[in-house]
Amino acid sequence: MREERRREQTKLLNKLKGIETEEEEKKEDKNETKQIKEKKKTPKLFFFIFLIITFVIIYSTYIEPKLLFKVNEYSIKTNKIDETMNGLKIVSFSDIHYGTTIGEKELTKYIKKINSLKPDIIIFTGDLFDRNIKIQQDSINIIKEKLGELEASLYKYAIYGDNDYENKEQYQDILNSSNFTLIDNSSKLLYTESNIPIVLSGINDYEKIDYTFINNPIDDIDISNYYKIVLDHEPDNVDNYISTNPDLILTAHSLGGLIRIPKIGGIINKVGSKKHNKNYEKINNIIVYNSYGLGTSNIKIRFNNPPSIDLYRLYLD
Fold it and tell me: Which residues fall within 8 angstroms of residue 8, CB to CB, at 6 or more apart?
């Protein structure tokens, strides 16, 4: 009897071992199958990531900065102008950085677009040059010709950018040849058909300056009740004269941070535009617009940030 029981127990144990062995083998097979699938997925995932990175590089280097373009249009209401200035068009452009992603072809395109807007006043807020690129005489001749083709019914004004100030004589020569007036820490009265002008002040951040000139009389004319626009290349500088209470400040320099991420903003924020680099903001109830410009810099890319110009229309409130 005992011998029979032992045999039965031995058979049962062997049977159980066989079941466990089968389950273990099944588990091993499943693990091997999973590992094989994961190995197959890995190259595909890397290839997909590689394609995305390649596309982003090509797009941000060759497509967006050279082929895309937009016009930002803003309406500004004020009670400091009269009917003759109602609807006045001011077109502002900046940061060409000629020779980076902008050459003759691109500049020609932008000039034609600006002229198509039929502006009354054209404003260039600096950085025609790029300090990393030496401009040859043939390029200077092209720039003079193209900027000279810009048509404004009233005025064409410009200020220095940081790259321009390093080549100030050459910059002045180009502006003079293309009928731009350089505003250098001074103010101008801009008239249309009425006796009520706009005051346009140009800031040169690269020299010692007393910002009180923004409110000083011009040719013995009290300007305290006139609409005041200040042009300043570097937006972070506005804190130095915000107390003078202009009505509108137009800045540039930031290039929009070159790479813009939704809800985050620009990624590459240069010195001079680390604080005030939003396209629009109000500081002490003063409107400040920052142009994201047309070109690039030593980093020749733009992503989610196409080249742009700004069209401002003044309306009587």
Answer: none
Distances (CA, A) of 315 to 45, 69, 306: 55, 26, 28
Interval 237-269: pLDDT, tens: 999 999 999 999 999 999 999 999 998 999 999
Q: What is the Cα–Cα distance from 128 to 36, expressed in whole angstroms?
A: 58
User: Into how many domains does the chain fold?
Assistant: 2
Edge-to-edge strand list for the sheet holding 186-190: 186-190, 198-202, 227-231, 248-251, 286-290, 280-283
Looking at residues 267-296, what average pLDDT do you find?
96
Residue pair 104/146 in contact by the 8 Å Cβ criterion: yes
* pLDDT band, residue 17 (cuts 50/70/90): low
Q: Is the pLDDT of residue 75 over 80?
A: yes
Of 14, 45, 67, the residue at which a domain comes to its end is 67
Domain that residue 59 falls in: 1-67
pTM here?
0.86
First vs last C-alpha separation in the chain? 114
Give me the mean pLDDT over the 158-186 stretch.
Answer: 96
Question: Phi and psi (nearest 5°) for 166?
Answer: -75, -15
Give CA–CA dist 295/94, Å, rounded: 8
For residue 281, give the DSSP letter: E
Instruction: Look at residue 84 in the predicted model and tell me its pLDDT.
Output: 93
User: Which pairing describes strands 155-158 and 181-182: parallel, antiparallel, or unpaired?
Assistant: parallel
- Answer with the one of 17, 35, 67 that is the final residue of a domain: 67
